[in-house]
Here is the input.
Amino acid sequence: MATTSKQPEKHHIESSPLVISDSFEGYPLNFFNLPLHYRDDLKSVLIPYGLVQDRIEALASRIFSDLHIHIPEQLICMCVLKGGYRFFSDLVSKIQNENRLRNDRSLPMSLEFIRVRSYINDHSTDQTEIIGLSDLNSLKDKHILIVEDIIDTGVTMVALKKELEKFKPKTINVVSLFTKRRNDKKCIFKPDYSGFEVPDHFIVGYALDYNEYFRDLEHICVMKESGIIKYKVAGGDKVEES
Ligand SMILES: Nc1nc2c(ncn2[C@@H]2O[C@H](COP(=O)(O)O)[C@@H](O)[C@H]2O)c(=O)[nH]1
Ligand SMILES: [Mg+2]
Here is the structure.
């Protein structure tokens, strides 16, 4: 009798975000090890570090599968500093793991770092400045993956993509660890890959800052109103880097 070997179903990894619902208020702080210097400023842990890592591993696998077809050309992975640096580092290292473990395909990468300024305290502004792109003409005919921490209004990413398109790259893909579900109005940009969709809170941790504080926090947390007031800077005269 002929035996039929059943092929395992292909595991499909979502490029769209894992949705954190509005009704989820986050985990109580006392279930986590948190730095003493921030404990009084935080309301809850919205996404624990471990879950962030698991989702990045899945995104790396999906990006590898989608984009390896461009080889032997290099994929320019472009980190949007400062907020994107930890996501960038973990994502690149997880794509490297895919490269190490696969014998049938690979995705060569080169790394670029840029800065975008757009925020005052916890409010997005429509003034966007891009810093750090040297030799822009080298982007011509290249494949770019922009690696961003969070998309809120979408203004920063629309401006950045528009600027990069002037230099005629072959493709631009955007991966954002978080996208925000805005209560007031719609976001004007949808990334190609997103880790999590978060409620309309100002989130900090895992390199996402509030006026340069909280980057040294592992988990993604929601701030208390008192914390927002404590670290506020005088409006308008200091534009923080992303
Ligand atoms: N630490 C946080 N930074 C945030 C948050 N929401 C947005 N941002 C920063 O702004 C830009 C993008 O904003 P956009 O309105 O132009 O889309 C993003 O890169 C962040 O650096 C937040 O909740 N926490
Ligand atoms: Mg950013």
